[in-house]
Amino acid sequence: MADVPALDFGSTPRWGVQVWARRHLLVGSSPTPWSPVDPHPARTNAASPVPVTPLPPPPLPGVPLGSTVDAQGCSHVRVAWSLPGGADVRTCIIWEVNETSLRQRAGLPARAPDSTLPGQRLLDLRNAYDAMTQTQRRATFRRLVEVDGAVRTHDVTLPKGSNDIHLFVVTTMTKTGIESPWPGGGAPHEHFQAVMAPRLRRPAPPLARPSIALDGTVTISLYAASSIAVQRFRLHRTTSEDAARDVATMGPAFAEVIVTTVPGPTDLDPVLGQPIYSATWTGTLPGRWDPWLLRAVAVPVDVVPQKAERGLPSPASDVVDLLVPPGPPELEPLAADVWGADHRGVVVRTATTAPPRVLPAGVHRLDGDAGALDVASVDLQDVPTTALTTAPAGAATAPVLEQGTRVAGQSPLALWFTRPVAADPVDVRVRLVDPFGREVVRELTVPGWVAPPPDISVSIVDVFAIAGRGVHLGIVTDASYRRRPPYVMEIVAQQRLLGPLPLGPLTPGGALGGGVRPGGPFLPRVPLGPPFGPPVGPPLRPRSLSGSFPLDEIPLADGGFPSSSEIVVVRNRVRRGLNPPPPYEGFIPLVGPLRITVSIVSPEGQRVTEVHTG
Predict the structure, then answer these.
(1) Of 232, 253, 255, nearest in space to 301 by CA
(2) Are 548 and 569 in contact (CB under 8 A)?
């Protein structure tokens, strides 16, 4: 034995010593030489501080579970630990033992009874481990893997198909190669981590039972038999039969229903013998003429720690359908146009959102009337589809319904018919009836056709009387006399109604000086004698004249108007200057106050008129 001074490991982590030895003999030369011979002494070293023991995370309630099995059928475990800051650690060592090995080392049966819950099995392992000596505990575990000292977690793959609980302990090794003691302070089992591959539980496919009330409220009753508690139901919907083949193609769930009631002891499925979990969803679905296809999925709780179970969503339920009809049919307001050279043809246009096909509930039908003509009832899908640009041939004798290409969810409709007289208004009614008998009616009164005024003008200018002969007038119009067929000028002159002649003298100072012109300045004077008496005799009958003059046949003016008892019209040559004559001049061989009407009529029958009263 040799005393050594106190060593400071704070600044020097490792101390070494060199040793030489010799013996003192009672017989022979003594002492013996130093051994080993110099310069090769015996050497040893010491290192410190003592390695730290890692701290495992606090244990979870029940049995901690590994991951759901991967593609190779293996579950994964994440072993975690913590170390004080600045600890001298080169590597961390992970130790592992399975449930079967630990039970055999502890003198327990290799397997627990099948009815024993994993939570009870874990409790038995903890008790058996605590009853072992420190040496037995360490001898039970096998060295699994070493990781870098900076690592604090490690993924461990459990054996494929393992149903055992696996225990893990972590120790450390310092940079000087000294391992930490086996953890055992306090309750020894607090230093290992227990985990097992989860036992997957999936509820049976649920049942969905939908119904609809008169006010459109939808109720879906949901049921699922399951050995693991069902937490909620997911509801999926679609109108596509192809998409409904798999719940994954139906899109996200439109509703989730929480299970709020716990099944009683008697609420068991008669076939599976498992508790029945139920829920009810109440709400509304968008109205559609195609039925909704519904499927439900039962979602259990995530884990049941005592049973080491992990819940998975159930397979989807069978597809159930529910028809939620939309509101009454939609029909756009009517709008009318005129077609045909005689303007007797009428087309009334509208549009509807009703689908033109046979629906699960039936079909939409159209009917109505156009004036005195009935529009026969027809299924919407049987209405012929056209471009709606040309009147069908049958529209000359009976109303014809057509539909256009469906665009943006609407089908344009057109009703073609011919009315007897173009100028007569006609009442039109179109009715759409849906498969449930609900109807919408649109009505329109199509006004009679009125020819639009021509794009020309006419004016009467320079009206003056020629004593004893008639009235001269100038006419200005922008209608061309070169057009073929020609524009036509029509002139109508009417004498204003004359009363009976008054007899008797005027009062003294009469303005007319012994007579008046009862018919105007162009009639002969009528002498009146004193006193001015009441009118006697029949009224004078007015005369009227008219004439029609194609502009291309009106002759050029040639020094005045010929003598005639009819209206005469001439055309002046175009002249420039301050006061050029009007393009046309006319002479009306009537005297007295007149009402003169001048009209220009186009070849299409359009008319523009000017009236002069004098």
Answers:
(1) 232
(2) no
How far apart, in Å, are the Cα atoms of 34 and each of 17, 24, 26, 44, 549? 16, 11, 17, 17, 161
Q: Is the dihedral of CA 555, 561, 566, 568 positive or negative?
A: positive
d(CA 295, CA 289): 19
Return the sign of the alpha-carbon dihedral for residues 299, 301, 306, 310: positive
Helix (H), strand (E) at residue 544:
strand 544-550
CA 510 to chain centroid = 92
| 216 Rama class: left (phi>0) / alpha (psi -120 to 50) / beta | left
Bridge partners, 367 (sequence order): 431
Give the closest residue to 610 by CA, choosing from 599, 602, 274.
599
Can you tell me the distance from the alpha carbon of 336 to that of 226, in angstroms, rounded to the nearest whole number? 65
The yes-or-no verdict on residue 248 having pLDDT over 80 is yes
Q: Among 354-358, 539-543, 562-566, whose mean pLDDT is lowest?
A: 539-543
Task: For residue 527, count other CB atoms closer than 10 A to its CB.
Answer: 10
Q: Are 22 and 34 in contact (CB under 8 A)?
A: yes
What is the pLDDT averaged over residues 434-446? 95
For 556-577, the pLDDT digits (tens) are 988 777 778 899 999 998 777 7
